[in-house]
């Protein structure tokens, strides 16, 4: 009797799980969207495309199946339901430069981690200072410096977590001390902000630059650096200072003994203080790619070419840094999600679905009576709302930004400034732990609570709104 009751309970729990409900909801949305008569504003193809988009969105949010499966399914449905004339037309997003560029950057980031270059760089730029507060500033500065060569906030967080743990032990602080809390806020919340400084800094910047290039105007690596480097550094600095407020005053203590803990910090890990052959090769190749991106911005060289060359060099047998195992370990789910979303957006554009959605939203929200700054505030609020639902910023950007830019074109808002402002705000907003992988890891390995995550996420969002406003009104008009 008890076993039967337990089996029934487990069955009910499984049926009511988020994944099961998500799968059921996606199925209902798809069936309704493909069987009911479309409203006057939509064609049959447009309604079916919207149904595929909404069902895919539910699957991505609830994840009853892996991203790869749900992404392939959504593209296939575009063709099966007759929204396009061929499967190749349904999968146009996978031919985008963005998909290949993101794959290449992920491989380069993994190469940096696999050879231990990230840890070497962290030890070289991080010095063990005499007080926790100075050490906290060193951690913040080191994470920002490492972001210039490592396009992965997650990898940077994993690199610095053991260093923070060692510093906490060196200062003889409690595991839940203010110093450690502030450091983990930097690694979780503040660290991803650094990825927005360069076009090649991470998925969010790369997705935004591609959408800008296809929807607004061409943008080069140098253009991006000029537009985004100063605002990002300002936002990063302000957020790091706010995180530092968590370090309480009585932790301003001198390190004891003969700094043996600092020595341990600099030499632990692989036990070497000199770069290995693989580390030197990866460093040289990455430096060459950065130089080529800068030079290519002036001579019209496609940004993807230096990344291709770097990956090829690191993959040849005599080097062997990037292997088949590294390629297998790439985050294919995110790559397929972005490819599928771009494909859906192309079909939505072709069938007039986006225009119809904008018309409907315009009836609900009185955009016509709003001032331009109020329209911008509403559009950013829409983007933030979408951001909170996603586990990655790049996925939220690829969904929200095209819709927001369509509104901007209708109401005469500067689309370049709006795209950059949306990136700053979306990239700095983490309310739920799963919104950012770096935050999730920091919460798992550090002393942060759900309340800490949400409250500091609101702080960084507020700071990003302030920096975006100043950039829009003062800085971006000066450099464009």
From TrEMBL:
Q: Where in the cell is it found?
A: Membrane
Where is the chain membrane-spanning?
21-42, 98-117, 138-164, 224-249, 281-299, 305-322, 334-358, 364-386, 393-411, 417-441, 453-475
**What membrane topology does this protein have?**
Multi-pass membrane protein
Is Endoplasmic reticulum given among the entry's keywords? no
For molecular function, the Gene Ontology terms on record are: transmembrane transporter activity
Keyword terms, alphabetized: Membrane, Transmembrane, Transmembrane helix
What protein is this chain from? SLC13 family permease
Q: Does the keyword Membrane apply?
A: yes
Highest taxon of the lineage? Archaea
> Which Pfam families does the UniProt entry name for this protein?
Na_sulph_symp (PF00939)
A cellular component term from Gene Ontology for this protein is: membrane
């Amino acid at each position: 009797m008890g076993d039967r009751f337990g089996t029934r309970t487990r069955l009910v729990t499984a049926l009511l799980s988020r994944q099961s409900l998500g799968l059921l909801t996606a199925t209902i949305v798809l069936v309704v969207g493909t069987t009911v008569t479309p409203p006057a504003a939509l064609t049959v193809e447009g309604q079916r495309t919207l149904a595929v988009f909404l069902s895919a969105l539910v699957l991505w949010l609830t994840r009853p199946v892996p991203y790869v499966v749900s992404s392939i399914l959504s593209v296939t449905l575009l063709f099966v339901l007759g929204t396009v004339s061929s499967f190749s037309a349904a999968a146009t997003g996978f031919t985008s430069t963005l998909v290949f560029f993101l794959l290449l950057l992920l491989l380069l980031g993994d190469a940096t981690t696999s050879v231990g270059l990230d840890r070497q760089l962290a030890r070289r730029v991080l010095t063990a200072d005499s007080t926790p507060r100075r050490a906290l500033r060193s951690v913040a500065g080191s994470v920002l410096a490492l972001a210039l060569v490592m396009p992965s906030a997650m990898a940077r967080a994993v690199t610095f977590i053991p260093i923070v743990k060692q510093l906490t032990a060196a200062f003889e602080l409690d595991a839940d001390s203010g110093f450690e809390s502030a450091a983990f806020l930097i690694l979780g919340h503040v660290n991803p902000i650094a990825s927005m400084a360069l076009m090649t800094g991470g998925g969010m910047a790369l997705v935004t630059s591609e959408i800008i290039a296809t929807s607004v105007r061409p943008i080069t690596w140098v253009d991006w650096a000029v537009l985004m480097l100063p605002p990002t550094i300002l936002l990063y600095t302000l957020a790091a200072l706010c995180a530092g407020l968590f370090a309480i005053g009585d932790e301003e203590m001198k390190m004891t003994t003969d700094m043996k803990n600092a020595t341990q910090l600099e030499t632990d890990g692989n036990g070497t203080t000199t770069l290995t052959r693989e580390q030197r090769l990866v460093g040289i190749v990455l430096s060459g790619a950065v130089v080529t991106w800068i030079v290519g911005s002036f001579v019209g060289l496609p940004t993807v070419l230096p990344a291709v060359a770097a990956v090829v060099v690191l993959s040849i047998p005599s080097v062997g840094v990037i292997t088949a195992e590294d390629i297998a370990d790439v985050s294919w789910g995110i790559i397929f999600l972005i490819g599928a979303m771009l494909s859906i957006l192309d079909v939505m554009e072709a069938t007039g679905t986006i225009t119809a959605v904008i018309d409907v939203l315009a009836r609900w929200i009185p955009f016509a009576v709003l001032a331009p700054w109020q329209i911008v505030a509403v559009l950013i609020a829409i983007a933030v709302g979408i951001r909170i639902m996603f586990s990655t910023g790049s996925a939220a950007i690829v969904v929200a930004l095209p819709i927001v830019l369509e509104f901007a074109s209708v109401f005469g808002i500067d689309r370049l400034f709006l795209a950059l402002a949306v990136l700053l705000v979306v990239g700095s907003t983490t309310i739920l732990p799963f919104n950012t992988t770096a935050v999730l890891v920091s919460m798992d390995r550090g002393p942060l609570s759900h309340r800490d995550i949400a409250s500091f996420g609101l702080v960084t969002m507020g700071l990003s709104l302030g920096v975006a406003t100043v950039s829009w009104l003062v800085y971006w008009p000066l450099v464009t």
